Amino acid sequence: MKTHAAVLFGRGQDWQIEEIELDPPRDQEVLVKWEAAGLCHSDEHLRGSDVGSQETQEVPQQAVGSLFPILGGHEGGGVVLEVGPGVRSLEVGDHVAASFFPICGHCKMCITGHSNLCDMGASTFLPGQISDGTMRYHLKGEDLNVMAKVGTFAEHGVVHEASLVKVDKDLPLSVVALVSCGVTTGWGSAVYRAEVKPGDTVVVVGIGGVGINAVQGARMAGAKNIIAVDPVEFKQKAALDFGATHTASSIDEAIPLVRDLTRGEMANAVILMPSIMHGYLMEGALTLTGKDGTCVVTGMAPQSQTECSINLFELAMWQKQVRGVVFGAANPRFDIPNLLGLYKAGQLKLDELITRSYPLDQINQGYQDMLDGVNIRGVLALG
Ligand SMILES: [Zn+2]
Ligand SMILES: [Zn+2]
After folding, report:
1. How far is it, in rounded angstroms, from Cα 118 to Cα 105?
2. Where does 56-131 have alpha helices with state H?
3. Residue pair 363/153 in contact by the 8 Å Cβ criterion
4. Per CATH, which fold does 2-180+350-381 belong to?
5. Ligand nearest to the CA of 181
6. Is residue 60's pLDDT more than 60?
7. Environment class of residue 15 by beta-carbon count within 10 Å: exposed (0-12), middle (13-18) or buried (19+)?
8. 160 Cα–ligand 2 center, Å
9. Is the pLDDT of residue 59 over 60?
10. How far is ligand 1, taken at its centre, from the CA of residue 40, in Å?
11. Cα separation of 76 and 163, whole Å?
12. Is the Cα dihedral 77, 82, 85, 87 positive or negative?
């Protein structure tokens, strides 16, 4: 079938709306009508050169030379229109969230409760379908790569059931799209990886579509002080609406504030989720981290970033921890429905995250608004 999609032809270029050709679903694949897609920074990293380098196109490294053209989008909510042979977990009419990490359900990571690290995820940025490695998406007769095997910047997609999570039908699909990545990544960074406890002091650095949900997670875990750090005033104000108790425009500005709030004990948890992570941020972040405290690194760094400045004496003597995290250490098949349940119960704010919706052909405007700092989160309305 033919459908419309936002395709990127190379670094630094705008997204182009193209008519693409989709093959029918094969083994364990379904045809999805995407209704909403989140404009996440990770897709912008494909376009920009801030994570990989311009010369080698090394985002993601495994796909060098085969990345472009690529259909973007890894946050999505949609409806199953057709199921291929061997599909067990879904039927026609089901509502689904995209999972940019596929979940096999039986590898070591999956069965030990870390399905965000499923072995299948290792190939999520390689071209080809999960089922047999062949291509289902084509543009003008040529094969088309697909972001994270879901490619949600399209009206339709052919997706393996391992990359989809069934959700309740009464949920807005725009909200489902956000929980499929940014919400869960932020919330889980606070709740699961920083292990925030009642009474804690928590610093969240970078209040975008991910950071604002770390603020929500810290609030729900019972933090006493939640300091939201972002240079953009609009985002500082938004953080207060989502549960932050204090704001600062930089790590340097947060240090004396946290010192005052904690009588010098500093924070139990510092969560780093700037739009791009750099090694120089670690020194200040660990100054903010108190005894037995945890510094969680959620933000994506350039692949070549190998150096950072850490006071190793204090790391040991104050017994601090530095922890990396992906997808908030959450399990997509449990946590996506669970967070949507908290939303339905009125405990998690999701509608308020969506600053603006855009039709597919305004995707470049949506990303410009994100870069200009006027959106908490933009959403593509694909219905
Ligand atoms: Zn995302
Ligand atoms: Zn697995």
Report:
1. 8
2. 108-111
3. yes
4. Quinone Oxidoreductase; Chain A, domain 1 (3.90.180)
5. 1
6. no
7. buried
8. 14
9. no
10. 5
11. 11
12. positive
What's the 119 CA to ligand 2 centre distance in angstroms? 5
What band does 126 get if pLDDT is binned at 50, 70 and 90? confident
Q: For residue 71, give the 3-state DSSP assignment.
A: strand
Distance 181 CA to ligand 1 centre (A): 5
* Alpha-carbon span 339 to 182, nearest angstrom: 12
Check: CB of residue 251 under 8 Å from CB of residue 231. Answer: no
Distance (Å) from CA 108 to ligand 2 centroid: 7
Given a contact cutoff of 8 angstroms between Cβ atoms, the answer to whether 154 and 73 are in contact is yes
Q: Do the Cβ atoms of 76 and 177 come closer than 8 Å?
A: yes
Give the model's pLDDT for residue 119: 94
Fold for the domain defined by 186-325 = Rossmann fold (3.40.50)
Identify any residues that bridge with 34 across adjacent strands, giving them in sequence order.
78
CA of 272 to the centre of ligand 2 (A): 27
Q: State the distance from the centre of ligand 2 to the C-alpha of 146, rounded, in angstroms.
A: 21
What is the mean pLDDT of the segment spanning 209-216?
Answer: 97
- pLDDT computed for residue 53 by the predictor: 42
| Model pTM score | 0.94
Residues 68, 150: contact at Cβ < 8 Å?
A: no
Separation of CA 192 and ligand 2 centre (Å): 19
Ligand 1 centroid – CA 327 distance (Å): 9
Place of tokens 């104000």: 237
**265 alpha carbon to ligand 2 midpoint, in Å?**
40
Ligand closest to 75 (CA) is: 1
Domain with CATH 3.90.180.10 in the chain: 2-180+350-381
The ligand whose atoms approach the alpha carbon of 298 most closely is 1
Looking at the CA of 115, name the nearest ligand. 2
